[in-house]
Structures
1.
Amino acid sequence: MQKILVAHDGSKSSEKALKKALELAVNFNASLSVLSVIPELYLTELPDMDRERIFESLSTETTNTMEKIRKSLSGKSIEVKTLIRQGDPAEKILETANKMKVDLVVTGSHGKHGTKKFLLGSVSAKIVDYSKYPVLVVK
Ligand SMILES: Nc1ncnc2c1ncn2[C@@H]1O[C@H](COP(=O)(O)OP(=O)(O)O)[C@@H](O)[C@H]1O
Ligand SMILES: [Mg+2]
């Protein structure tokens, strides 16, 4: 196993996924890429100004979180990359996995805004369904 991609949305569940992914990367001496996707805002009825402000704040939050992660992992023996994309989260995670030809995709079972009513979150469910590569969903 050489390349591990972990999807991070700032949720507790994705923190658990990151921990597990890190543990695996260290054990396999694999590279670890941490990906966060800034979601598109489909709230079309919002005025442009509000949409821009929400997007700005999401971007800042994501950049800060990824910077913290990058710093916290900088002392590790493995190669770590943080990536930020924009768009539909599941699509961007799958697209990145394909481009990188990863050996494993790691996600949390749930995310930030979902409900625990479902067994899996919508993003992790889509990744499990459509990924060409093995997926580890961390609970
Ligand atoms: N915007 C995102 N960027 C990166 N990873 C994400 C994103 N959204 C979700 N994920 C990944 O998918 C996992 C499950 O989240 P999700 O399916 O969105 O659950 P929920 O429906 O509870 O929000 C997260 O723990 C994270 O690993
Ligand atoms: Mg979510």
2.
Amino acid sequence: MTQQPIRVALIFGGVSSEHEISCLTAGGVAREIDSARFEVVGVGIAKDGRWLRVPLERIKALEVADGRLPVVDPDYPEALLLRSDQGGQIATRKGDRLEDLQDFDVAFTLLHGPFGEDGTVQGLFEMLAIRYVGAGVAASAIGMDKDLMKRSMVAAGLPVGPWKTFSSAEWERDQQRWADEVAGLGYPVFVKPARGGSSVGISRVDDPAALAGAVAEAQLHDPKVLVEKGLVGCREIEVAVLGGHDGLAPRASLPGEIIIHDKGSFYDFNAKYLPQQQVSLAIPAELPADTTARLRELAVRTFTVMNVEGLARIDLFLCADGEAYVNELNTMPGFTRLSMFPQLWAATGLSYPDLVAELIELALARPLGLR
Ligand SMILES: Nc1ncnc2c1ncn2[C@@H]1O[C@H](COP(=O)(O)OP(=O)(O)O)[C@@H](O)[C@H]1O
Ligand SMILES: [Mg+2]
């Protein structure tokens, strides 16, 4: 008896600044997913937000070509998401008719940033009773907002460095007050848009005179801005976590390290996407066994108390005095074959195709509705 393949709606692209990275990821997943077990229904979200029907062969072709990153071609026919008895359904809209209706069992969104990683698309699936890979609405939304995220982490007793948050109105009303509060954190500080990613809009500020400029830069991306105490001289360690099966505990990968060669700089956009010897990844990180165990435990605890499901990359700082802090939680971490999350799992014994299958299985095993 041959088993029916599991039908997976692969949803990628999106309206955030990470559209191209998402397309790159979709190419990798489409090429490597076990085609004997999974049948892919492709939906690309164009930069203007329209959902489009993209054939699998075209998703497989999404790669860097002539030094350019791939995008969702806006000329594909329009796709509609519908509810069906067993999950979801994708249809192609032709004028006022629907064609080529295709049921699917589970949605796999490879979207990063706002309108994808932030609970919005997860809410859509919840409303339609469609199973989906990854964190639910609340954990996704909280994970996307660095201020809500840190407040929840502090309330749950996780180690988080000190920070201040203000809206653009609060900043305008009393810049001196905020400058004093920031001075109280101690320079250097990191200024960030609350709901950003890929280090976009983030500055390190060493001199109080440069604070206002860095806030203005962050405000270009989000009216809500965070200023954090700079955790200088700390190592940047990342741990990939997967949800547990059958009520068992989540599983942590071996830790990896981001090694930045220029001491005064940080893991900014260029270092992430245009690495020219400024940064290297150590997978696994070189750490004493007890530190490795402590960081894996901290990552699992973060995943659990923040109510994450499916997957997350937990980013930590390990400081010279041995203290570890949680920097952030990414509910849809970079997921190309070369990204930290899949590489950490490969180092821990789970290959890229097996990781994709595992995420889909976790999503299928999850009950619908309130969990
Ligand atoms: N408080 C901090 N102390 C030291 N370095 C920081 C701090 N916050 C951010 N950084 C540096 O900036 C990078 C990006 O910040 P992060 O909060 O991870 O934003 P993003 O969500 O864009 O990845 C980090 O990987 C780290 O190199
Ligand atoms: Mg980060």
